[in-house]
């Protein structure tokens, strides 16, 4: 019995996927039952590094998603359209779908999973978050006995590469970004990575799985790393921290889950650069690597580490999804319909939620802050800053003035845990002080 697969896209990830499918030796025996039948590409003329059976390349992607002989469609073309339409069409034609497309899943997950549930097919997305690191399947299956409290991750390799080099070389952001682009670690248009969009897509997906509800992407708070300077990295280092772009999804500790009233949880879902204590497990995740720390009850802390992108690692995730679907099909190809007429799907693999999670506004976040303030070096300035923070219920953990920058006093403040809204109001006032020239950076502290 062969399971027939159609592949949409033969770029980096598509090529890695085809390479595994064409070379099953010493891998799981089920792989020998997977037949790559059609591969959709933009041009037939390009030279390909992978050897494929003759005649399987086509530029007609629609023909793949509607082909009655194909069981599973692999979407690795990326982007929003035509990926979304092709996924929906594949589902409408009864195909199971495997995709690495975090942008499409984070934006259109509701319509894609609703359509999949109605059609009785699976849409599996292991490759959409953190490339080769298994994190989707563990959230759905291995950790499903847990109440998840928090997910904290480094889930964008490009920004982690840049921040790591800034840390080790003491260079500024623009210099390292330009070099990363020259070396191929950052895209020519780096916006999706640098400004946190890619990480926001991924954390929305993780939050949805961890907390069993849909996430509206525009409600995910997002800041990128453009404003991080060599000065901030150096101060962080002196204070015992490294700066990482962290993606966080957690239950708001202030609002406990109320089982009796069914009160929906409030979640924090956010991406921003963060000062991470050097002893924290995420602090030593460097270069292009990704890591995800999951905290659950009763398991405690579990951390996943590995390559978050690249041809082989991402293809590894895709092929594991193909095999998961093939395993289910092997047990029974007939779709089972329940008494209410809906198709029966494995509840651990299919999407089983329809409601939307409530996301707490960022002003309600309670966290520690780091702020760097440049002021006139006059008597009483630090006192005025302290009084203003105090007036807004912002308690300070430390205030240091180490030296001068551009003839201005450079004051670095670390707060205790404070409400973000209070901290922001204090900063608005501080920015208007006559002695204050500029507040070049404000970062959260883990
Ligand atoms: N651009 C992503 C990153 C890889 O830098 O991690 C694909 O998700």
Describe the structure.
The chain is α/β, with parallel strands linked by helices and 446 residues long. It folds into three domains: 3-132 and 311-335, NAD(P)-binding Rossmann-like Domain (Rossmann fold, 3-Layer(aba) Sandwich); 138-307, Dihydrodipicolinate Reductase, domain 2 (2-Layer Sandwich), CATH 3.30.360; 364-445, 2-Layer Sandwich (Alpha-Beta Plaits). The chain has 13 helices and 18 strands. It has helices at 12-22, 61-65, 83-92, 102-119, 136-142, 157-169, 173-183, 191-194, 197-211, 230-239, 311-331, 381-391, 420-431; strands spanning 3-8, 34-40, 57-58, 72-75, 96-99, 123-124, 147-154, 221-222, 241-251, 266-277, 289-297, 300-307, 358-359, 366-375, 396-405, 408-415, 418-419, 436-445. Strands 7, 8, 9, 10, 11, 12, 13, 14, 15, 16, 17 and 18 form a twelve-stranded mixed β-sheet that branches. The chain has a six-stranded parallel β-sheet with strand order 3-2-1-4-5-6, sandwiched between helices. β1 (3-8), α1 (12-22) and β2 form a beta-alpha-beta unit. The mean pLDDT is 95. Bound molecules: L-homoserine. L-homoserine is lined by residues 156-158, 193, 198, 308-309. L-homoserine binds at residues 156-158, 193, 198, 308-309.
